[in-house]
């Protein structure tokens, strides 16, 4: 199943890219794991509208251990690079709505 995940993430990037229309309203797989802690009024700050590159860099730093964490490092390791980019792109686009 792990081998299929990059393909799904790639399809999510295609589906949620510019001009995707109604598909843009649905988050990519994995994004729901972020919303518990990163929404309006949440303790960890919201992700909506943050720059995509900032979100990707944070996930990479957590995944690689460069940014210490108690929970995010484990969550970030659950996403490969393509999944991280798809999630970051979706959250970044939410600020422009």
UniProtKB/TrEMBL annotation:
InterPro entries: Cyt_c-like_dom_sf. Keywords: Signal. Residues 1-22 form the signal peptide. This is Cytochrome C. It comes from Methylorubrum podarium. The lineage of its organism: Bacteria, Pseudomonadati, Pseudomonadota, Alphaproteobacteria, Hyphomicrobiales.
């Amino acid at each position: 199943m792990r081998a299929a995940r990059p393909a799904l993430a790639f399809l999510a990037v295609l589906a949620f890219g510019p001009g995707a229309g109604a598909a843009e309203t649905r988050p990519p797989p994995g994004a729901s794991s972020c919303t518990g802690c990163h929404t309006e009024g949440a303790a960890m700050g919201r992700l909506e509208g943050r720059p995509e590159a900032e979100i990707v860099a944070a996930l990479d730093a957590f995944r690689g251990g460069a940014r210490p964490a108690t929970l995010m490092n484990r969550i970030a390791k659950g996403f490969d690079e393509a999944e991280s980019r798809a999630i970051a792109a979706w959250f970044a686009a939410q600020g422009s709505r």
